[in-house]
Amino acid sequence: MIEIINLQKDFGEKKVLKKVNLKIEEGKVTCILGGSGSGKSTLIKCLIRLEDPTDGKIIVNGKDISRLKSEIKMAAIRRHFGYLFQEGALFDSMTVGENVTFGLKYLTNVPESDYPKIIKEKLALVGLTEDVAKLNPSELSGGMKKRVSLARVLAVNPKVILYDEPTTGLDPIMSDIISDLILDLKAKLGVTSVVITHDMHSAFKIADYIAFLYEGQILLYGTPEEFRKTDNPYVKQFVAGSSHGPIQMKLMKD
Amino acid sequence: MLLLAVRFEFKQAVEQSVTIGVESFGVTALTSFFTGMVLALQAGNTIDSIFGDPIFVGTIVTFSLIRELGPVLTSVVVSGRAGAAVTAQIGTMAVTEQIDALYTLGTNPIRYLVIPRMVGFVFTMPILTLFSNLFGVLGGYFVAVYALGVPGEIYMTDITSFMGAKDFMHGFIKSFAFAFMVGTVCCYKGISTRGGAEGVGKSTTGAVVTTMPF
């Protein structure tokens, strides 16, 4: 289990995260909702120390990793995590196949002779055929890039997968395919998922728990049902996707 | 398994050395050849107008090239050609989160990207400097022999009588220092790139501009 306690992150004067407290349940899908610039990406980047938190604790398997200095110890922690980047972050100097097996070389002892089998298996998991393996990332569509990126994450069998806006920029059908994939992975592999999104449809479909992040703080944490029934005006406005409400008013005050 | 984390990226280093060397060889050779020609022409004409004979052209051309101009010309060309490409490539990786992806896939960008490129620069720039010197001396030879009428043997004797190993080492050691500096600046500018395509442009220009004054 992962527990975030009083997490703070400042960028100079700007306080992006202000005492965030959150528990990520094992084997469940936790969605983190919030508008653009609410600190969602910063939060999951702090979780695997791609950003260093200013203050607070991040407990992973009983250990606080927020102050870990050693790159080797940090690599050992990151080994259990997979991170699906917003734009895929595929290495454009490599083919799809090389991208998928990149992590195997550094994180596992899998012999290179097994790579073709793993490429085929992981691409199949995300609904792609092995013909794609020879292509370069520049030849792929947005949806395919995300799926290849997910195959690269899955290749190293992580226990926790962090998704940074997995459905953003995709058409509604592709968004739904990605949402189904996340549910599939939970069911088949039992992975813990943390999904950052502002796609309400996807969030309600996949989430076991939802956390609403607003101005660097968690305003509400609960099940999708609790979110539907909430009286919190901020959350209600966000769920409804309305331009009228306290979030707009707050923006205007600023 | 974690021992893998400290292994040296040999294949990457070889690839980078070849890329940096091949990319820069043609421009370096051409620039040095013409610089040698200009040096010989200017030195020859000046000496001719003072002493009535273009003496010591070989000495002047070779001394200037081997001690000073060779390493400088090479590093300017390499930073503009291969250095800018390195900054642009690493910079693009930084703004498209590929550097973060390296961390999440168990490797460190310093080890995977920076060290092989540094090895590439430090290994190839001294070799390129040697070729630069060679082509410069050759350019000077053509001008001295065919334009100034200096006999080829005299041009060569002028070089060998006055040049020592010390002069050669002076330029050679300089080229290592320049290589280290060009590599460090270009990689650092790449890794620290922020702000999309505009950021990549700024870093690339910044890398070349920073290396020039040295």
Number of strands of chain A: 10
- The proportion of strand residues of chain A reads 15-25%
Taken from the alpha-carbon principal axes, the silhouette of chain A is: globular
N-to-C SSE string of chain A, H for helix and E for strand = EEEHEEHEHHHEHEHEEHHH
Q: What is the average of the pLDDT values of chain B? A: 89
**End-to-end distance of chain B, in Å?**
42 Å
Radius of gyration of chain A: 19 Å
The assembly state of the depicted protein chains is: heterodimer
Q: Could you describe the largest sheet of chain B, including whether it forms a barrel?
A: none
| Biggest interface and residues each | A-B, 29 and 19 residues
Round the mean pLDDT of chain A to the nearest integer and report it: 88
Strand content range of chain B = under 5%
* Fraction in helix of chain B: over 70%
Helix content of chain A: 25-40%
Low-confidence stretches of chain B: 1-6
* Number of distinct beta strands of chain B: 0
Q: Please describe the biggest sheet of chain A, giving its number of strands, its sense, and whether it closes into a barrel.
A: 6 strands, mixed
Gap from first CA to last CA of chain A: 38 Å
What's the number of structural domains of chain B? Answer: 1
Count, helices of chain B = 7
Give me the strand/helix succession of chain B: HHHHHHH
Keywords:
heterodimer, A: 254 residues, alpha/beta, 6-stranded mixed beta sheet, 10 helices, 24% strand, B: 214 residues, mainly alpha, elongated, disordered N terminus
Summarize the entry for a quick read.
The complex is a heterodimer of chains A (254) and B (214). Chain A has ten helices and ten strands.
Give your account of this protein's structure.
The complex is a heterodimer of chains A (254) and B (214). Chain A is an alpha/beta fold and 254 residues long. Helices cover 39% and strands 24% of the residues of chain A. Chain A has ten helices and ten strands. Chain A has a six-stranded mixed beta sheet with strand order 6-7-8-3-9-10, with helices on both faces. In chain A, α3 (96-107) runs parallel beside α5. By secondary structure, chain B is mainly alpha-helical. Chain B has one domain (27-48, 56-211). Chain B has seven helices and no strands. Chain B has helices at residues 10-51, 57-95, 98-104, 109-147, 152-162, 165-191, 196-211. Chain B is elongated. Mean pLDDT of chain B is 89; it is low at 1-6. The chains are: A alpha/beta (254), B mainly alpha (214).
